[in-house]
Sequence to fold (305 residues):
Amino acid sequence: MTHEAAGVPTTRNDEDRQNQDRQDEPQQAQDAPQADPAAGDVAGGSGAPRPEERLARAVRVAEQALIEFEIAVETFRVEVENFSRLHHQKLGPMYARLDELDAQIAEARAARTGDPEDLRKAQEARAIVMPMPGVDELFHDWMDSDGLSPEASAMLTEQPVRPPKRVRPGEEARKLYRELARQAHPDLAPDEQERTRRDEFIARVNAAYGRGDVALLKELAAEWAAGPVAPELRLSESEELYARLDWLSRRKELLTVLAKELEDSAIGSMLRMAPDDPDRLLDDIGEKLLADVSRREDELAGLVQ
Fold:
């Protein structure tokens, strides 16, 4: 860097040195060794990476991008499932109480008026309170994206049910989960045997993360660190690399569809209303339902007096 570039005024000695440097440059260029094209000189432009090497780098970048996307989708899926389960556990009784009050109000009004339309509405309101269960209702909450739900699994194995304590697992659990997902992701497996091992391990990680179980996540991290180290995936043939990129692209499309379905679901839409504190949203809904119950009870009391 010259003094001019640094913002420092030049002196006479500076100018003399710069003139001498310019005179020496041609000789220095002649004395410099010539780059050997066969040696792959990168600076001379003749050592550009082979197409397969550039393709391999593109595959690695795409893999990491897909893993980050999958982690984001999985964390949101856990929040959606936890919110749905907690919503049912905490607020289900209040919804049931509102349905019962609506039925009692409709029945009291019909008894007072004797109007056929009021009688019909009373029958409809009562039918909502005690519907005939269908297949979906009978198996509600028994199956999720990973198979048996925690409640169903606990019942079958005679273990105590451990429902999630909150919608979004704590920060430490989130950090442990993301690190484990990056390290053990099945997409990084070099063969089917290793992919199977990673699939089974990640399923356990997902279950622990869904419950926000920090202790278990730490145990899983130690288990992974002590486990066998899989050989790095070495792809050198263009056909294999192009096939890998194609698979990554199709996988990303499937994840995009899944993410859209989660976001557009009823629970996903509710979560978007409170992205920073979804647990507080449950409390807010509960307070509103309590107010609705109080109003219905007052209305019923006025009808039966």
User: Anything to note?
Assistant: The radius of gyration is 33 Å. The chain has twelve helices and two strands. The first helix runs from residue 3 to 6.
